[in-house]
Amino acid sequence: MVNKDDLVRYYKSYYGEREVSWKDALGEDLNWALSFDYLKESDTTKHVHRLHPYKGKFIPQLVEYFLDDHTDEFKREAFFRRGDIVLDPFCGSGTTLVQAKELGIHAIGVDISAFNTLISNVKVSSVHLADLHFHVLEITKALKKFVYDSQHLRFETALTEYLNEYNTKYFPSPEFKIQARNKEINEQEYGEQHEHIVAARYNQLVAEFGITIRQTNQERFLGKWYLQPVREEIDFVFEQIKAVENVHIKKILTVMLSRTIRSCRATTHADLATLVEPVAAPYYCAKHGKICKPLFSIVSWWERYSKDTIQRFSDFAKLSTDTMQVCLNGNSETIDIVSLLEKRDPEFANLAKQQKVRGIFSSPPYVGLIDYHEQHAYAYDLFGFERKDDQEIGSMAKKQSKKAQQDYVQGISNVLNNTKRFLADNYDIFLVANDKNNLYPDIAANAGMTIANQYKRPVLNRTEKDKGAYSETIFHLKGR
Ligand SMILES: C[S@@+](CC[C@H](N)C(=O)[O-])C[C@H]1O[C@@H](n2cnc3c(N)ncnc32)[C@H](O)[C@@H]1O
Question: Which residue's CA is the nearest one to ligand 1's atom 17?
Fold first, then answer.
């Protein structure tokens, strides 16, 4: 846990050598110790936390701070102990479940999104690494044979070789970027001009190797955002995964395939986060200052992510405790946690009935900010999970209007009222929120709870400087 001196030293290095006192470092009411900004990216994405991208995660160290049994001048008592059960009714990608498994705490998650539920359960599944390794090798071998038998690989190799030569000649690094930055070259014109020249050779190669680039049916996400050669490989791997008998391994492989295909969408490097238009030919990439190309094969990402996944499971296995964690797919406003658990894991259901859930640690969605289903549209389309977009609380489609805020208050209050029947007396609930509209006092009142404390944490977006810092509040709610 961070100590005062480290924090002050850290802030001096961040803000320069001006006088930084402990009070400065903490701000008036912000708890700077909870910014966790001193951590490296590899700490906040450690082991299984980075098994699959997910927009809207909280950082594991924040969960750990509230779940572990340390105390400090802000957290004056420990709220959870080994052997307790914690609930996360907005489980997302399973951060609470994973940290609970590290800390010897049982955990139940709930999420409305079937795909998020899958990611969470995969992260906490006990996996036999040798078995996983075996299946990964088998599928990779079959995929490579499939690709080798097709012309994709030879086409992509020829195109890559051509582009490497072309870029070295016309977009030398770093000279080209420097010239563009100093406006000695009209970057846009130059880029477009070379895009045209490359297109001619590209079309020749497509014809030479007899490659079909776009899919015939582009109505759905998979048809629109994947080039034909990539789509064939995706379908091939999916068929291999379906044939795997071990359900745990099958689920892990499914998440691995999903992570792979997310990286293989036919888009430019600049538009990876917000898809604009599918890209089916080489293009000038301002990000890399050269001609880049969309992907025609999934092999390299599949291999990279399969090795990474095995490594991450192996790292997590060293830290895991022998406790139970499960994520249930459902609507937290109405779900009957114990009866669902009875069907899924009777031993865990018995424990939940006997000792009850000690408390909640969760980050509910914000109002109208993130579309939790659409961000994984590729996975819903490929795996055929049922979408329940209309049951998302704070859904992006409803935006942030007054009505959307009222619905949000109702939704979160419903979740608290529904889930408190599973909680032990004297429960503690921690909700991480960016409550700029001051909705949580009403939510607490509707749920018959009081706000016992508020921990304000600064969120410093150092990589996206223009977005600046904002603060989040961790509301501590208790029964009246
Ligand atoms: C902010 S995210 C949680 C992220 C999580 N803390 C993590 O680290 O991955 C909120 C989650 O609430 C889920 N959600 C929204 N409405 C829900 C509802 N009615 N019942 C259950 N889950 C819901 C969304 O699908 C989303 O995954």
Answer: 392
- Does the beta carbon of 333 lie inside 6 Å of ligand 1? yes
Residue nearest to atom 3 of ligand 1 (CA): 92
Q: Name the β-bridge partners of 453.
A: 476
Structure tokens at 19: 């006088």
Give the phi and the psi of residue 106 in degrees, each rounded to 5.
-75, 150
> What are the C-alpha distances in Å from 200 to residues 290, 416, 475?
17, 61, 60
Q: Which residues pair with 362 in a beta bridge?
A: 431
Question: The tokens 């095995």 sit on which residue?
Answer: 310
Q: Which two three-digit tokens encode residue 223?
A: 């048809």
The alpha carbon of 117 and the centre of ligand 1 are apart by a number of angstroms equal to 10
Encoded amino acid at 191, one letter: G
Gap from CA of 123 to ligand 1 centroid (Å): 16
Is 320's C-beta closer than 6 angstroms to any atom of ligand 1? Answer: no
Nearest CA among 93, 101, 89 for reference residue 430: 89
The one-letter amino acid at 425: D
Q: Counting atoms of ligand 1 from 1, which one is nearest the CA of 331?
A: 20
Q: Confirm or reject: Cβ of 90 under 6 Å from ligand 1.
A: yes
Domain regions of the chain by residue span? 1-30, 38-121+320-377+387-479, 129-313
Helix (H) or strand (E) holding 447: none
Rounded Cα distance, 125 and 141, in Å? 25
Nearest CA to ligand 1 atom 8: 57
Mean pLDDT of successive 10-residue stretches along the chain, which has 480 residues: 56 55 56 84 95 94 96 92 98 98 98 98 95 98 93 92 98 96 96 97 97 95 96 98 97 98 94 88 96 95 98 97 98 98 97 98 95 94 95 93 96 98 98 95 98 89 52 94
Cα–Cα separations (whole angstroms), residue 112 to 117, 132, 395 = 8, 28, 12
Q: What is the 178 CA–ligand 1 centroid distance (Å)?
A: 44
Which of these, 300, 299, 314, 309, lies nearest to 256 by C-alpha position? 309
CB-CB contact of 120 with 376 (8 Å):
no
For residues 209 and 202, give the distance between their C-alpha atoms in angstroms, rounded to a whole number. 11
Identify whether the C-beta of residue 167 lies closer than 8 Å to the C-beta of residue 291: yes
Three-state secondary structure call for residue 182: coil
Superfamily covering domain 38-121+320-377+387-479:
Vaccinia Virus protein VP39 (3.40.50.150)
CB of residue 472 inside a 6 A radius of ligand 1: no
